[in-house]
Amino acid sequence: MSWIKIETTLPQKPETIKISAILRKKPAEVVGALVVLWCLTDGLTEDGFLQYYGRREIDGAVGMRGFCAALEAVGWIELGDDGARLVNYGKHNGRSAKCRAETARRVGRKRARGVTEVTEGEGECNVDCVTGVTAAALAREEKRREYSLGESTQRAGRVTSTPSPGGFVPPSEGEVRRVAGEAGMDVGEAGKFWLWQQARGWRGVVDWRAALGLWMERSGGPGGDGEAPVRVTRADVEVG
Question: Are 109 and 53 in contact (CB under 8 A)?
Answer without folding.
Answer: no
